[in-house]
Design goal:
single chain, 755 residues, mainly alpha, 24 helices, extended
């Protein structure tokens, strides 16, 4: 499928949306080999792309035209809308005369490309005989992101081997995303976060798989990307996957998990993507997910699980030998940035220190460091359960907005494992989106950081937070409005940072209520016991509060009823509109009586349009040639011009369609011919009026005025202004004559009706 790759790599598609890129391949697959021009309705193209007809007309078609890759002509419908599309994929059209061009496709190659697109994203059809063609793998997917999912699946299928395994990109990738995600991001030319969402949707639909392969380090990394449909199409399945050598303990002996023995040079030269993305964060993924493709090292020692060595690292050497990059302890003497709360020892007991633990510390939790390529990676080890949980500092986050937002809770963030951090990051994104609707998007991270700092001051600091995950999701990141104003957070306006005026108004109302109750109690019991007066004040205040709450509930219920009534009215109005639209669609043709033609069938619509154009052409000829004050002369000239115009129309249609053409085809061709006749008559009338005395006088006056006020070298500008003035005068005279002609005909018709 080199043709699909070549089309997607066209320079004109750079920066275009995924829907436009996918539309190019869809149109190429449906291009007939005989003509090279594909005719398709906008609605049908939308079904292939998973988009609505309106979206195709307003976004996809303009994008195709801007790209310069597809030439699009629209066919006007009954009411002037874009009824259909005539598309020509220009790279394929231009490649027909070039021998050996990848886009010079034979009929069999076009059929293969069409079968591939049908298998992936065909919308499905119901045939006249009752049979049904099922949709493709993503044929039923529509709505937001449907075109992106289709394009992603197509790119993965094009990059997949016979076994269904997709070639992954090389080099180091971000710690937050795996190699499959970065591979898809480079194919789609988008960010890894967007590619991760697309890959998750495809994985949920069962269209791709990310097998978790156990590496030599004991971790399970997502280092493969498989398209099962490709493997099934080639009859490969699991038997098509190459077996990897297993280590003695059952793990994969190749810790990188990316290259096979002897395949390094080939894989480095045949990458599907050459450009390298910028690294995000200060750390990269573990061996299986992030290391660059490299050759296999010669076996110089047996693989062992543990080594009793000094210094806490395997392959340790004496201090001072770290300058040699080939030594195993290169850069291991660099102390990583370890959070203070994680500086506990790894394990206690009498069995000795674990690998990577801090020496000389007691039981508890500790920090283990292991080499990943040329960097150190920190892993918090739980000595009580013997499990590891991976942490990441705030400074290592890819998004600068996340870094700014989480600075006040950096220590709490380091206490979360990888899965908890992913969940918390989604909560941070939701909070930032909500704040972006209140304040500027650039200020949202700092506002969220201020909120987290305020929440920490409430609890007394990070050290008093026992459950970091629960505190972040339930208290730290949550907005707590103290009033109905959506901009309020604990009595502070998020957009201004000042006290919330709505909260102040509520406090003022409550203080006023307390003052009123106190005044009434003072008036009723002026000299009573203070305790009795206090008790009476509290009782009346409770009653007033309950009454005020009942009034508020009544107001809310009334507003809810009004909203419901408005919604019901809107629903009824929409139902009436739908019924009227359905009745209009089912109405028969007003001319021929053909049922279900929305009042006018296409043939009668063409005939009406032709009659209108013929009348306009006749009026243009009569308006400039007849004496409009003589009614008899106007009627005679009108009949003669109408006869000549209809004869001219019939001869032009016969030349265009043939002498023995189908009458229906002639009826559809007649409006275009009549339009050309009308336009020619208009041009001739304007040229004739341009030579009239009024137009000549106006042109001369404008020319002389231009010479007077223009100074030297103003002849050309004066001539242009004079020509424009003459054209405007001729157009005005033509409109006036047409108006007089219509008025004369109305007077003549009224006189005949009166007689």
């Amino acid at each position: 499928m080199a043709a699909a790759r070549t089309l997607l790599g066209c320079p004109g598609l750079e920066g275009m949306s995924d829907a436009v890129r996918l539309a190019v391949v869809v149109l190429a697959s449906r291009t007939p080999s005989e003509t090279g021009v594909v005719k398709i309705r906008a609605r049908e193209l939308g079904r292939w792309l998973g988009l609505s007809e309106s979206r195709v007309r307003h976004a996809v078609v303009p994008g195709l035209r801007r790209s310069g890759v597809v030439e699009v002509d629209t066919l006007a419908g009954e009411f002037g809308e874009d009824w259909g599309l005539e598309c020509r994929v220009l790279p394929m059209w231009e490649a027909q005369n070039e021998v050996g061009h990848p886009l010079k496709l034979e009929k069999s190659e076009l059929a293969t490309l069409l079968r591939l697109m049908e298998a992936l994203m065909a919308p499905g059809w119901a045939h006249g005989d009752g049979s049904v063609t099922p949709p493709g793998l993503l044929g039923g997917r529509s709505g937001h992101g449907a075109a992106t999912d289709r394009l992603a699946l197509l790119l993965l299928v094009l990059e997949a081997r016979d076994t269904g395994q997709v070639r992954l990109c090389g080099g180091q990738v971000s710690k937050r995303y795996g190699r499959p995600t970065v591979t898809l991001a480079r194919l789609l030319k988008c960010s890894p976060s967007r590619a991760e969402r697309v890959l998750a949707r495809l994985e949920d639909a069962g269209l791709v798989e990310r097998p978790r392969v156990k590496t030599g380090s004991g971790l399970r990394q997502e280092s493969r990307l498989v398209v099962p449909a490709v493997a099934a199409a080639h009859g490969a399945g699991n038997r098509g996957r190459r077996a990897r050598p297993e280590a003695a303990d059952g793990s994969v002996s190749d810790p990188a998990g990316t290259t096979w023995p002897g395949e390094n040079s080939r894989s480095m030269e045949n990458l599907q993507v050459n450009e390298a993305l910028e690294r995000s964060g200060s750390e990269v993924e573990d061996l299986a997910g992030s290391t660059a493709l490299h050759t296999d090292h010669s076996s110089v020692a047996d693989v062992v699980s543990w080594a009793d060595v000094g210094g806490g690292f395997s392959g340790s050497a004496a201090s001072g030998s770290c300058a040699r990059p080939e030594r195993a302890d290169t850069r291991e003497d660099q102390v990583p940035d370890v959070p203070k709360a994680s500086s506990q020892p790894v394990s206690g007991g009498k069995e000795g220190p674990l690998r990577g633990e801090n020496q000389g510390e007691g039981p508890g939790e500790g920090v283990a460091a292991e080499a990943t390529g040329s960097r150190l990676r920190l892993t918090v080890v739980d000595g009580a359960r013997g499990q590891q949980r991976q942490g990441q500092g705030v400074a290592d986050l890819d998004d600068l907005r996340h870094q700014t937002s989480l600075v006040p809770v950096a220590w709490l963030w380091s206490r979360l494992n990888g899965g908890q951090q992913a969940v918390a990051l989604r909560a941070v994104d939701r909070a930032l989106v909500a704040l972006s609707g209140i304040v500027e998007a650039q200020a949202a991270p700092q506002v969220l950081a201020n909120r987290l700092a305020d929440r920490l001051r409430e609890v007394g600091g990070e050290a008093l937070v026992r459950d970091p995950m629960g505190w972040l999701l339930g208290r730290g990141l949550v907005q707590r409005p103290a009033c109905p104003d959506l901009r309020c957070d604990d009595g502070i306006r998020l957009d201004t940072g000042s006290d919330c005026p709505t909260c102040g108004n509520i406090v003022h109302i409550r203080r006023g209520l307390r003052a009123q109750v106190a005044a009434r109690v003072e008036a009723d019991i002026p000299c009573g016991d203070p305790a009795a007066r206090r008790e009476e004040f509290e009782r009346r205040l409770r009653e007033a509060t309950v009454l005020e709450e009942a009034r508020a509930q009544s107001r809310r219920a009334r507003v809810a009823r009004e909203v419901e009534q408005r919604q019901e009215a809107v629903a009824r109005r929409r139902a009436l509109q739908e019924d009227a639209k359905l009745a209009c669609q089912q109405a028969p043709c007003a001319d021929c009586g053909l049922p279900e033609c929305a009042g006018l069938c296409p043939g009668c619509s063409s005939r009406r349009r032709t009659e209108t154009l013929v009348r306009e052409a006749v009026d243009l000829a009569v308006a400039v040639r007849a004496d409009l004050s003589d009614a008899a002369a106007v009627v005679e000239l009108t009949q003669q011009c109408e006869t000549d115009t209809r004869a001219l129309l019939a001869s032009a249609c016969e030349r265009a369609c043939g002498a023995e053409a189908d009458p229906s085809w002639v009826a559809f061709t007649a409006p275009d011919v009549a339009r050309r006749i009308r336009d020619e008559r208009r041009d001739a009338a304007l040229r004739r009026l341009l030579r009239s005395s009024e137009a000549v006088a106006e042109s001369d006056a404008v020319y002389e005025a231009g010479l007077r006020h223009g100074g030297r070298g103003a002849e050309m500008a004066a001539e242009q202004a004079a020509e424009a003035a003459g054209r405007r005068t001729a157009d005005l005279l033509l409109r006036q004559r047409l108006g007089e002609l219509h008025a004369a005909r109305m007077r003549s018709a009224a006189a005949m009706a009166a007689a």
